[in-house]
Design brief:
heterodimer; A: elongated; B: 0% strand; elongated
Chain lengths: 116, 177
């Protein structure tokens, strides 16, 4: 039954040719179509694409420079802060050193007085 | 396909109208038949087939080979017909005689009444299953090719085929003793 139905369907659905006139009608409509050209990029599009690419490159380079300058600036600022911190520490250490030296000097002198 | 068809395609791509005409002649049988059996109306089928070939002309540069050409034409025709049927929402009410448009080549082996009845029953199917059945039995595509053509899953194609054949078998059983 399956094969029978398959065969019957194939017979019932045999392709039909629309005839030679059909081809002519298609060709007439094709002839009225605007000329088909191989798709290509127009000069205007190329010009715009080039300008866009150049602008992107310039912006990219500028952004890179900007980023680099900011990084350098941050580095210099950090260096200044470190130097300042070192200077403050050095000053404090100097004060402490002097204080210790002064104290030692006066103790030594006091000892000498006591001995004599 | 063969070398001549590939040459025709190359010449058509280069703008040779006669070569494009020969390509149309090669493919018009398949395109028109699919449109006719989908729409069940000769005039609408011819309009749709002409539109398909015009679209082919406009998009010829995207067709790489004759094998792709046949696939492209089937895909565009089937989908355009399905869209049209859905838009018109008239696929249940068709003039039955319109679908009866076969050549009488091997009439000796044919059962005209049964064939006509099958074509009438085909018109009762919704657009998508109808396209599936036509691509299977008119264009002799396998389910994988049908799935690619109609952008469906292979399971959907098989399901449409199974249900449509069951409906046809049942209906024939009712009408043919």
């Amino acid at each position: 039954m399956n094969e029978d139905l398959d065969a019957r369907l194939r017979k019932a659905l045999r392709p039909v040719d629309p005839g030679e006139q059909f081809t002519q009608r298609v060709l007439t409509r094709v002839a009225n179509e605007p000329k088909r050209s191989i798709p290509r990029v127009s000069k205007t599009t190329m010009r715009w694409a080039s300008a866009t690419l150049a602008a992107s490159l310039v912006l990219g380079v500028l952004a890179g420079h900007e980023w680099q300058a900011r990084r350098t600036q941050q580095g210099l600022q950090a260096r200044r802060q470190l130097l300042e911190a070192l200077r403050v520490t050095r000053d404090k250490l100097d004060i402490a050193y002097r204080a210790v030296n002064d104290k030692d000097g006066s103790s030594t002198e006091a000892g000498e007085h006591r001995g004599s | 396909m063969n070398r001549t068809s590939e040459e025709l395609l190359s010449r058509a791509l280069a703008g040779d109208a006669a070569a494009f005409g020969a390509l149309v002649r090669d493919q018009q049988r398949s395109v028109y038949s699919l449109a006719l059996r989908m729409l069940a109306d000769r005039q609408k089928a011819e309009d749709l087939a002409q539109e398909v070939f015009l679209r082919l002309y406009r998009n010829l540069s995207s067709v790489g080979s004759v094998a792709h050409l046949a696939f492209w034409l089937r895909k565009v025709t089937a989908n355009a017909a399905i869209d049209r049927l859905r838009r018109d929402a008239r696929y249940e009410a068709v003039p039955l005689e319109e679908a009866d448009d076969l050549p009488s080549g091997d009439a000796a082996n044919a059962d005209p009444l049964l064939e006509r009845r099958l074509r009438q029953l085909l018109q009762q199917l919704p657009p998508a299953p109808r396209a599936v059945l036509l691509l299977r039995y008119q264009d002799d595509l396998d389910p994988t090719e049908i799935a690619r053509t109609l952008n469906m899953s292979i399971n959907t194609v098989k399901s449409h085929l199974k249900r449509s054949l069951a409906m046809l078998r049942e209906s024939i059983g009712e009408t043919v003793p």
